[in-house]
Specification:
The complex is a heterodimer of chains A (about 240) and B (about 220). Helices cover about 85% and strands about 0% of the residues of chain A. In chain A, helix 6 runs antiparallel to helix 8. Chain B folds into two domains: about 140 residues, 3-Layer(aba) Sandwich (Rossmann fold); about 70 residues, no CATH class. In chain B, helix 6 links the parallel strand 6 and strand 7. In chain B, helix 4 crosses helix 5. Chain B is globular. The chains are: A mainly alpha (about 240), B alpha/beta (about 220).
Chain lengths: ~240, ~220
C-alpha cells in the first residue's frame, strides 16, 4: 500500500513539475481539479457507475462462459480441443474489432456493446486459467476421488473447481482490470455514457483537462477496485495455501 | 475375501508382476513386504480396481477402502471435509456425514483437527486422516500402502495398535504393504515376501499374532 501511495505521489509531483515547466504542453493537476469542480457530482457518479456496471457484468458473463467451457472441455477430449481453438480465436481478435462489430449489431446508443466487449476481452484470460488448471492439477487428487467413488461431474465440482480458485482469483484480477479498460473503448465509440464516453466527448471538444480528469478517475477506480475488493478476494481464495 | 491367482502385469516391456498368487481371509491382517519398486503398489492398485492385470484372476469379496502411499489430502478442504469426501460423493445428507466423520475421527483420535487445513497438521495426523477417509465408508477390506512411511517409531507403534483396534472392533480385513518386514511381523497374520522386480512370491511367513500379543503382555 505504501509503495502504491509513493508511486502515485511521484507521478503527481512529476506531472506538476512538467506542467509548470511546459504549461502549453500539459495541463496541471490544479487545472484538472478545477475541471471536476465544474462537473455536477451526479454526472461523475453516473459515469463511474455506468463503466463499473458494464465491466462487472461483462466480467461475470465471461466468468460463467469460461466455467461452462472449461467444464465441457473437462468432460470430453474433442470439446477440450474445441475450446482451446475457441480461446485462440477470441484472443486473436482485436478489441477494436469486437467493439465495432457489437456497435454495428446492437447500435451506437445500445448499452450492450461495452458489456460484450468487456466479456470478449476477459473470457480468454479466465478460460486459459481454467484450462491450464484442469491439465496441471495433481492427478493424484483425481485418482483419490475415483477411489472414493466420484463421478466426472463430482470430480469437477469438488476437485477441479476448488483447486482452480487461487489461479482463477489471480486471473480474475487481470480480467476485471482488462474488462474495465476495454469497456471504456466501446463506451468511447458508442453513445451510451460512461467514462469512455466522457473521455471521447472531452477529446472531441478539445478539453485537455477533461480528458486527463476522466483518465485519472478511471485509474483511481481500478486502484480502489483492486485494493479494496480484488486483493482481499484473492487472499481469501488462497487461504488454504498458507 | 481377496483371492489373487497367477497375476501378471507389465508396463510396456517392463514386467512388474510375475505370476502372483495370494489369499486374504475375512478378518485377517495380511502383509506384503518387498524391496522398493518391486510391484507391491501395482498389485494393490489391481486389487483396488485402479489398474488392470494383463492376465490372472483377482477376486475381491466386499467393499474396499484404499489408503494410498501418499496421503493425498485435498488442501482446499479441512481435515473433516477430507474425511467426509466419499460420503459427499455418495450424496449423503450433511448431518449424517458430520456424524459419521465425527465417529471415525474419535476412533482415530483426530477429532480436534476436523476444522484444520491439511497444511497445518503433522504427518501422523495426515496419515490418520487418510485412514479415516477410507474407514468412514465402512469398508469390509482396507488396503494400506506403506502406512508407516514418514512416521517415527512411537507413531508406527500407535498406528499398529490403532489398526489392530479397527480390525477387531469393526471386523475390517486388511492388506498392508510395507518395504520393511519388521513393520509387519507384529501386526500381520501372514506376510507374503516379494522378490525384486519382476515380483514373485519369495516366501510366505505365517505369524501367530495372538501368541506375539501374549508374549508382549508378559514382557
Amino acid at each position: 500500500m505504501l509503495s502504491l501511495i509513493t508511486l502515485i505521489s511521484t507521478i503527481f509531483i512529476l506531472w506538476f513539475i512538467v506542467s509548470t515547466t511546459y504549461p502549453n504542453l500539459l495541463k496541471s493537476p490544479i487545472d484538472v481539479l478545477g475541471y471536476f469542480q465544474g462537473v455536477p457530482p451526479q454526472r461523475i457518479l453516473l459515469s463511474v457507475a455506468k463503466t463499473l456496471t458494464n465491466s462487472l457484468i461483462g466480467f461475470f458473463i465471461a466468468l460463467i462462459l469460461a466455467e461452462i467451457s472449461a467444464f465441457l472441455a473437462y468432460l470430453n477430449d474433442f470439446l477440450d480441443s474445441f475450446f482451446t481453438a475457441v480461446n485462440t480465436l477470441v484472443q486473436s481478435v482485436s478489441v477494436l474489432v469486437w467493439a465495432l462489430i457489437f456497435i454495428i449489431v446492437f447500435g451506437v446508443l445500445s448499452p450492450i456493446p461495452p458489456i460484450l466487449v468487456a466479456s470478449a476481452s476477459s473470457y480468454p484470460i479466465l478460460l486459459s486459467a481454467m484450462l491450464s488448471v484442469t491439465k496441471s492439477l495433481d492427478r493424484k487428487f483425481i485418482e483419490i476421488s475415483n477411489t472414493l467413488g466420484a463421478s466426472k461431474v463430482q470430480e469437477y465440482i469438488y476437485i477441479i473447481l476448488p483447486g482452480s480458485v487461487p489461479h482463477l482469483a489471480s486471473a480474475a484480477r487481470s480480467a476485471i482490470g482488462i474488462a474495465l479498460r476495454i469497456s471504456v473503448v466501446a463506451e468511447a465509440l458508442g453513445g451510451s455514457g460512461g467514462i469512455g464516453y466522457e473521455l471521447m466527448y472531452n477529446y472531441n471538444l478539445g478539453i485537455v483537462e477533461g480528458v486527463l480528469a476522466w483518465a485519472i478517475l478511471l485509474i483511481l477506480l481500478m486502484i480502489v477496485l483492486d485494493v479494496l475488493i480484488l486483493r482481499p478476494i484473492e487472499k481469501w481464495a488462497e487461504r488454504w495455501l498458507i | 475375501m481377496i483371492e489373487v491367482k497367477d497375476v501378471y502385469k507389465s508396463f510396456g516391456d517392463d514386467l512388474v508382476l510375475n505370476g502372483i498368487s495370494l489369499k486374504v481371509n475375512k478378518g485377517e491382517i495380511v502383509g506384503i513386504a518387498g524391496p522398493n519398486g518391486c510391484g507391491k503398489t501395482t498389485l494393490l492398485r489391481i486389487i483396488a480396481g485402479v489398474e488392470k492385470a494383463d492376465s490372472g484372476d483377482v477376486r475381491v469379496n466386499g467393499k474396499v477402502g484404499v489408503v494410498p502411499q501418499e496421503n493425498v489430502l485435498l488442501p482446499w478442504f479441512t481435515i473433516g471435509d477430507n474425511i467426509g469426501l466419499g460420503l459427499k460423493f455418495k450424496g449423503l445428507k450433511k448431518e449424517e456425514i458430520e456424524s459419521r466423520v465425527s465417529d471415525v475421527a474419535k476412533l482415530l483420535g483426530i477429532e480436534d483437527y476436523l476444522r484444520t487445513y491439511p497444511r497445518r497438521v503433522s504427518g501422523g495426523i495426515a496419515r490418520k486422516t487418510s485412514i479415516a477417509r477410507a474407514l468412514v465408508l465402512n469398508p469390509d477390506i482396507l488396503l494400506l500402502d506403506e502406512p508407516y512411511t514418514g512416521l517415527d517409531l512411537k507413531s508406527v507403534s500407535n498406528l499398529q495398535e490403532l489398526l489392530r483396534k479397527i480390525n477387531e472392533e469393526r471386523e475390517v480385513t486388511m492388506l498392508i504393504i510395507s518395504h520393511q518386514l519388521a513393520e509387519l511381523v507384529n501386526i500381520a497374520n501372514r506376510i507374503y515376501v516379494f522378490s525384486h522386480k519382476p515380483a514373485r512370491i519369495k516366501a510366505i511367513i505365517d505369524s501367530d499374532i495372538d501368541a506375539l500379543k501374549t508374549l508382549s503382555n508378559i514382557l
